[in-house]
Amino acid sequence: MLEPFTNEEARCEQANLPNYGAVKTETHKYVEYDNGEEELCDLAADPYEFESLHESADPALVEDLKARLEALKSCSEEGCQEAEDAL
Fold it and tell me: For residue 14, how far is the Cα from the chain centroid?
């Protein structure tokens, strides 16, 4: 039997997560954590995001998603809408 987290347990779990930036397209989700870790999920093949593919993925795909994330990190005003539209 699974027991649900209490509010206090949930807060503790979230407190242990590093800060991160992420970009999500219709097919993939790419995450960069402040501790240097990366994740890449194929949302069609793995909709619950159990397996990270960043080490075995096509390097061109990873670079494209990294560039999109960087564009979103550094955008302002109308540039943000343009960066989002590119997704």
Answer: 16
Bridge partners of 21, per DSSP, are 32
Q: Which residues contact 6 (CB under 8 A, 6 or more apart)?
A: none
Q: Count how many Cα atoms sit within 13 Å of the Cα of residue 7 in the half-sphere of its side chain.
A: 0
**24: which strand partners?**
29
Q: Which helix (H) or strand (E) holds 45?
A: none
Give tens-digit pLDDT for 2-60.
Answer: 444 455 544 555 567 788 899 999 999 999 998 999 999 999 999 999 999 989 999 99
The tokens of 62 are what?
């990873």
Cβ–Cβ < 8 Å for 80, 70: no
The helix-helix angle for 78-85 and 59-73 (nearest 10°) equals 160
Give residue limits of the domains in the chain.
Answer: 8-85
Tokens coding 86 = 């590119």
